[in-house]
Amino acid sequence: MYEEIGRNRRASWLLIAGFIVFIVFLGYVFGELTYLGYGGMVIALIIALSMTFTSYFYGDRIVLSMSGARAAEKTEFPYLYNTVEGLSIAAGLPMPKLYVIDNAAPNAFATGRDPEHAAIAVTTGLLDKMDRLELEGVIAHEMSHVADYDIRVATLAAVLVGTVVLLSGWLRRSFFWGGARRSRGRQGLGPILVVIGLLVAVLAPIAAQMLRLALSRRREYLADAQGAMLTRYPPGLAGALRKLAAEQGTLAVNEATAHLYIVSPLKAGDVAERTSTLFSTHPAIEERIKRLDEMSLGEAPGPSPLGT
């Protein structure tokens, strides 16, 4: 577990550093394509630092707001509170803040920057359709994301990747109103910058999304295994995943946050989800269930339990 925590902490800082460098590069290209010059780099650096600060300290609030989550009151959802409190004690973790999304589609996610600033959100559909053991399996899965600092990497990725996509769109639009004027002023370098800038503007969002999705798929397998170890009952989470697969509905979520959920909240017929695992936000549910079934039969060794 401690190895995974260290890996996620390094991934967080590498993600931040890579984001800042990349945004500054976009600012340089933008400046060269317009009359801003090196001013484009300065503006980009300010944007990068501001978004990094915002995503690190306020990324969870942004994600919760985008999902339409509301604070779960203990008087309204006592069973949810009791379940999370029990698993928090078993995992040796602080009690996360709890939120509810009023939607019949069963789903859940965790967010935050560390166990002391973590939040778990569940849909009302999940609470209605899961039995006690299945709900414990889902919550344990999300608690493992909290324990391993997956939530920090995932939340940063959601906000920073969204920023890369937005700024790349601005860069593409700059070709229509600034690229030609700037390139005429610097005839030798202008055409090259136009080509480089166009490639960056087109490929950057794709590369950023692929990185985000790759991180998500790897995290889900480990969270399944550690969640099953926490409850000591793999069939609970396996049963929950079977219900989630059978009753999977669509949530009104931003695509940038889809990787946070225990199963994809996107439309089941989405082209990217249907055509290639490369662009899917999650590994196949059937494969996740198979691995949990193997744990139940003792055919596959599980990871170290949380807190050890």
Automatic annotation (TrEMBL):
The record's cofactor note says: Binds 1 zinc ion per subunit.
Entry annotation: catalytic residues = 142
User: What does the record give as EC number?
Assistant: 3.4.24.-
Q: Which residues form a coiled coil?
A: none
The entry sums up its family as follows:
Belongs to the peptidase M48B family.
Q: Which cofactor does it need?
A: Zn(2+)
Keywords attached to this entry: Cell membrane, Hydrolase, Membrane, Metal-binding, Metalloprotease, Protease, Transmembrane, Transmembrane helix, Zinc
Q: Write out the residues that bind Zn(2+).
A: 141, 145, 220
Task: Spell out the GO cellular component terms annotated for this protein, sorted alphabetically and separated by semicolons.
Answer: plasma membrane
Q: What class of enzyme is it?
A: hydrolase
Peptidase M48 domain residues are 76-295
* Subcellular locations according to the entry: Cell membrane
The record's InterPro entries line, in alphabetical order, gives: HtpX_protease (IPR050083), Pept_M48_protease_HtpX (IPR022919), Peptidase_M48 (IPR001915)
Pfam families xrefs: Peptidase_M48 (PF01435)
Coarse class of the primary localization is: membrane
State any GO BP term from the record: proteolysis
Which lineage? Bacteria, Bacillati, Actinomycetota, Candidatus Aquicultoria, Candidatus Aquicultorales
**Annotated organism of origin:** Candidatus Aquicultor primus
User: Could you identify this protein by its name?
Assistant: Protease HtpX homolog
Chain ranges passing through the membrane = 12-30, 36-58, 153-171, 191-211
What molecular function terms (GO) are annotated for this protein?
metalloendopeptidase activity; zinc ion binding
Kindly give the membrane topology term recorded for this protein. Answer: Multi-pass membrane protein
